[in-house]
Amino acid sequence: MVKSVLGSTLFFFAAPCVVGGLIPWWLSGWSSPHFWPAFLIVAAGAFVVLRAFIRFVREGRGTPAPIAPTEELVIGGDYRFVRNPMYVGVVTAILGQALLFLSLAVLVYGVIAWAVMAAFVKGYEEPVLLETYGTQYEDYRRKVPAWIPRVRLRRP
After folding, report:
1. At what angle do helices 2-14 and 39-58 cross, to 10 degrees?
2. Could you tell me the CA-to-CA distances from 11 to 40, 63, 105, 107 in Å, in that order?
3. pTM given for the model
4. CATH number at residue 88
């Protein structure tokens, strides 16, 4: 568990914090915020990402990093509503910053970041998850949408 926590913490600062925080701030020209209510969108996205990282350690007993994957398929928490809450959270934070800084460059970056993440999911993550977890992942993929969160839980 300690290894999972340390690995996830390092990956958190290396990936989502850079992609979803440092790069948008740099693209905005290091400007000060213009539209403060958008900070709530940024915070909501960051909160979802943080919850997903914690879920990977607790439920999956691993990290989100491809070099140290989970032992179990992570399907609890926010993963009940959307298959990619970590990516959805990062993109939400980026788009929130586009509004916060009133920056077209950050908005365009957010769209490009989502496209790159979606391509990575389709080209790498989904095939690996299918190979690793087989019918368990196939069933999960059939029931839970990839990008737009399901509002209600399905009843058994």
Report:
1. 150
2. 24, 8, 26, 24
3. 0.87
4. 1.20.120.1630
Query: What is the CA 115 to chain-centroid distance, rounded?
Result: 13
Would 6 be classed as within a structural domain?
yes
Please state, as a whole number, how many other Cβ atoms lie within 10 Å of the Cβ of residue 128: 13
Provide the token pair at 25.
Answer: 């701030």
Structural domain harbouring 135: 2-143
DSSP state of 72: S
Residue 65 lies in a domain: yes
156 residues of the chain, pLDDT tens digit each: 666 556 556 665 667 778 888 899 899 887 888 888 999 999 999 999 999 988 988 888 877 777 777 889 999 999 999 999 999 999 999 999 999 999 999 999 999 999 999 999 999 999 999 999 999 999 999 999 999 998 765 554
Residue 10 domain-assigned?
A: yes
* C-beta separation of 92 from 45 below 8 A: yes
| Separation between Cα atoms, residue 138 and residue 135, nearest integer Å | 5
With respect to residue 102, please indicate whether it lies within any of the assigned structural domains. Answer: yes
